[in-house]
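Reviewer 2 asked us to include a model.

Predict the structure of this chain.
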Amino acid sequence: MKVKRDQVTGLVLVALGIVIFIMTSQFRKPMTLEYPGPKLMPSIAAFGMVVCGLGIFIKGCRDKDGGKIPLSRQGLLRVIITFAALCLYIFAMKYLGFLIVTPFLVFGLTMYFAKASGVDVKIWAVALFAVAVTGIIWAMYVPLFGMELPIGELFE
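Predicted model (structure tokens):
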């Protein structure tokens, strides 16, 4: 039996969703009806990833002609690197907090995918993009929604 790209994608999404759920369940802030805390959005995303991953996997198993193209070694390497970066991000955020770790993740993944795609980017532009993305996410969660983002155990 030949493994299809949809099956690999589905399994990776399920695995990533489970890892994200396990890691966010370690946040100390309890979820309540009054204040859902920093666990809510990552937990919803993790649930969505598991459900979508299962759907993609089942679709890949049922399709006779769709998704037959096997995942290339470069594609698989990109998936593994991205998965590892997200796991490291969640682990580092626990100790260093959102505002310190997020710009590095956005910068690193943007540079990696730009270079892998052959796109020439300016380092200062990617750094500005990473800081802007971090700032926008922070502005949406903290002042707008009134939620907390992890500040890191080293700074508590």
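The CA atoms of residues 19 and 87 lie 7 Å apart. The chain has two domains: 1-69, 72-156. We have added this to the supplementary material.
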